[in-house]
Amino acid sequence: MQAKENKIKVNNQLLLPTMGCGTWAWGNKLLWDYDQSQDQNLQEVFNFCVDKGVTLFDTGDSYGTGKLKGRSEQLLGQFTRDYQGDEKDNICIATKLAAYPWRLTRQSMVSACQASAERLGKPVDLAQMHWPTANYAPWQENALLDGLADLYEQGEVKGVGLSNYGPKRLKQIHQRFSQRGVPIVTLQVQYSLLSTVTVEKLGLKALCDDLGIQLIAYSPLTLGLLTGKYGNGVFPKGIRGLLFRYLLPGIQPVLDTLREIANFRGKTLSQVALNWCICKGTIPIPGAKNLEQAQENVGALGWRLSEAEVKELDLASNQISRQMVQNIFQTR
């Protein structure tokens, strides 16, 4: 059973599963069409994931649009309280604290995490810096990082991590935190078969392995594009639809290889794409808005691609002419 899969020990207080669940869509109207009538479906997603050992839920204090800002954290707090299964004690809520322009001091990060804990109704397990400011306001960043380290030193969280950092900046921050005896346990970056530059070409995975940092892969299905459900006139609404129309003509080698392996394995394209991330030593955090999507995601667990299949997918990834658009905050 998936619930018995090995956990990844990132420090003495945190055990993470092989795969997590991203909750960007939980509260986001603009990109994901959220409305509160979906809450019961989301509770079912949460319960199913936890029952199957997918106990890591990634959120952010900026998740949720307009008046719904923070909605994802609120829902996760409610769902955690209502869940009564055997895996309850293993639930890990990882939240990302936004580097808003008005957050200028180390105390602002501590306060932000405390506000997240209030929305959750429980302490944050893993606090992460949502994005670096190095690309536009480098003078802002050190104070926020100091505040992140303060959270760990003060016992407010079980661990701290980063998001959207490349190898050059990661080395600098790791040295800064090491001087205080604060371990960076996770780094979250965009990673999928359509987005490999930072992790592989720039050597981020190898560096994380050297530093003892667990890499978390967000958008492992490229916003749903790697499910194989789009094309031939079928596209999602809005921004995603425009992006998919741009990307699809250049990614056929990946889709063809995914389909070939999926047919051979009796799996879906998305399950093969997620398993590839796992075979690469990352923890993918695909999203799910309903039970069917959650069930499909969990089908990526309990088996592994062969080395030959991983190499086939690597080759296909190298042959695409269009990579996923990179996060504008991602540093080198």
UniProtKB/TrEMBL annotation:
Annotated GO MF terms: oxidoreductase activity
Xref: SUPFAM superfamilies: NAD(P)-linked oxidoreductase (SSF51430)
The keyword Oxidoreductase is assigned to this record: yes
Keywords in alphabetical order: Oxidoreductase
Coiled coil spans: none
Xref: Gene3D superfamilies: NADP-dependent oxidoreductase domain (3.20.20.100)
One annotated Gene Ontology cellular component of this protein: cytoplasm
Domain NADP-dependent oxidoreductase: from-to ranges: 19-314
Keyword Manganese in record: no
InterPro entries to which the protein is assigned, alphabetical: Aldo-Keto_reductase, NAD(P)_OxRdtase_dom_sf, NADP_OxRdtase_dom
Protein name: Aldo/keto reductase
Organism: Euhalothece natronophila Z-M001
